[in-house]
Specification:
single chain; alpha+beta; 15 helices; 20% strand
């Protein structure tokens, strides 16, 4: 039954020995072998490399070469076929050399019997099949390790890495950066490691110890490239360990984002509560004035009395109504801006007109506090392309804030100049209470009112600067605040050069104070 015969390669340079060995093989009772003979060393290696033989018998002497050389050459070529070395004289040193070279067995020709040879080849084939199955399992395990998302390594009882994937080898290569983080260094008497690999092994040993101290809980490490790794070490029944390293950078970033989102939500909720409290106060105060004064006039009218003493109340009613309107306009404008529905109606407008309008509107408030208002222009004929209502709102909000936060006898100055880029810098400076460094950015938050001390609470919705910045950005500009606690505040709105039209720029350092109503706007000085 040739089809069932086991292919056997015999490398033997002596024909008589070949015949004797073939006959011995033929007498093996439990298996049928198909013997292929090669008498030359190179021909034997070429035939073996074909990969069709299940076992190979090699004579110790093959011309000028030896069977040991043949075995070593076959192993170096990656040939898995089991090789059995045959020799005329049994010597222990040759036996040991054959086993060391990778031979499956070592047999003496003089003592060769069908039973001995058959058993040797049977065991060699079984061992080869076991090695092949193990290699296949190892390959499958390695493929599994290489395709898993975690960095994994298996260590034996001596702490040597016996299996790992590429991800773990990358982690091991960078572990030397973590020696200080693991508390490893000269101060603890650690031996100096000359290579990153050696440092990595040292770090790995201390990492295992650190995980043991944590009671089996994962240990997190921060790598120099901002990665965060979670390391878990499990013991094996044989005394080894399995190390699993997971990259939790995104998870930690997500958790931090959740915390920040929660804090933002809480801050927004607090801001909303503060806004509702502020707005209720803002609405109640002018409404009380409107209702109170109007009821007095109505009662006096119904009683047929003289209304002339009450005419001044009409101004108070008007001012309260305008204040309510401003509050509502602030809320509506900010809602439009947030929704992206604030449409600019652009035209060429005179910057000085917007400043003078704001100063006229705030004249009575400034006079009541004995404040001096001043406007300075490099060019009072400077035109800009902008939305007039938006720019007017910007100037009004800034001057209103300056007046609000400046104490009696102080000064508020509005300046319009060309900046270095050729754009417009509209600056409002005051000598008021100022802000701390940490409060400057918070000042732009909607519904936020900065309280520098308990007595500094002022009226307002907290939308002023938020609206100013939003309107400036709609004009491709920006807002900057320069302030010092107790020394006043300077807010500068900058518009880009393409929005500035014409006008003669005055010589640097020579701003002019202008405006027909300026004298009337200066209070008390």
């Amino acid at each position: 039954m040739a089809g069932d015969a086991i292919p056997l390669l015999l490398v033997e340079d002596d024909e008589d020995d070949y015949v004797l060995t073939r006959e011995t093989v033929g007498e093996i009772a439990d298996a049928c072998y198909e013997v292929v003979w090669r008498a030359d060393y190179e021909e034997g290696l070429s035939a073996l490399a074909e990969g069709r033989f299940e076992v190979c018998l090699v004579d110790y002497r093959i011309g000028a070469r030896t069977g040991l050389e043949f075995v070593e050459a076959a192993k170096q070529a990656g040939i898995a076929t089991p090789l059995i070395l045959l020799t005329g004289v049994g010597q222990q040193e040759i036996d040991l050399a054959a086993t060391s070279a990778g031979a499956a067995d070592f047999l003496e020709k003089s003592a060769l019997t069908p039973e001995l040879l058959g058993r040797s080849m049977r065991f060699a084939r079984a061992e080869a099949r076991a090695r092949s199955a193990l290699a296949e399992q190892s390959s499958l395990l390695q493929a599994t390790l290489d395709h898993t998302g975690a960095a994994i390594a298996a260590l034996d009882a001596l702490g040597e890495v016996v299996a790992s994937n590429e991800a773990f080898r990358e982690v091991l290569a960078s572990l030397h950066h973590l020696l200080p983080q693991l508390g490893v260094g000269p101060a603890r008497g650690e031996p100096a490691a000359s290579t990153a690999s050696e440092c990595g092994k040292v770090a790995l040993e201390h990492l295992i110890a650190l995980c043991a101290e944590s009671g089996g809980q994962p240990v997190e490490l921060s790598f120099p490239d901002d990665r965060v790794m979670s390391v878990h070490v499990n013991a094996t029944p044989e005394g080894g360990r399995v190390i699993v390293v997971n990259d939790v950078t995104e998870q930690r970033a997500f958790e931090e984002a959740l915390v920040m989102a929660r804090e933002d939500a809480e801050s927004a909720s607090q801001a909303k509560s503060a806004f509702l409290a502020n707005i209720s106060h803002e609405l109640r105060t002018p409404l009380n004035a409107i209702l109170g004064f109007s009821e007095l006039i109505i009662h006096q009218s119904e009683a047929g009395g003289d209304l002339r003493p009450y005419v001044s109340y009409l101004q108070d009613i008007h001012d309260s109504g305008r204040h309510l309107l401003n509050i509502i306009n602030d809320i509506l404008d900010f809602s439009k801006i947030e929704a992206g529905k604030y449409a600019l109606v652009e035209d060429e407008i005179l910057v000085s007109d917007q400043v003078e309008f704001a100063l006229r509107m705030l004249r009575s408030q400034a006079t009541a506090k004995d404040l001096q208002l001043e406007a300075r222009y490099e060019d009072d004929e400077m035109l800009i392309v902008a939305d007039e209502t938006a720019i007017r709102r910007v100037v009004l909000n800034l001057v209103s804030n300056a007046v609000k936060f400046t104490g009696a006898g102080g000064q508020v100055t509005v300046s319009c100049t060309r900046n270095a880029a050729g754009g417009l810098d509209l600056t409002v400076s005051d000598s008021g209470i100022g802000m701390r460094e940490e409060d400057i950015q918070r000042a732009f938050e909607p519904f936020r009112q900065i309280r520098v001390h308990q007595k500094s609470a002022t009226e307002g919705t907290g939308l002023g600067l938020a609206i100013v910045r939003a309107l400036a950005e709609l004009h491709q500009g920006g807002v900057a605040i320069d302030s010092a606690f107790g020394r006043g505040t300077t807010v500068t709105v900058s518009l880009p050069p393409e929005r500035v039209r014409g006008g003669v720029v005055a010589e640097a350092g020579a701003p002019r104070t202008t405006g027909p109503a300026l004298g009337a706007l200066q209070g008390g000085h």
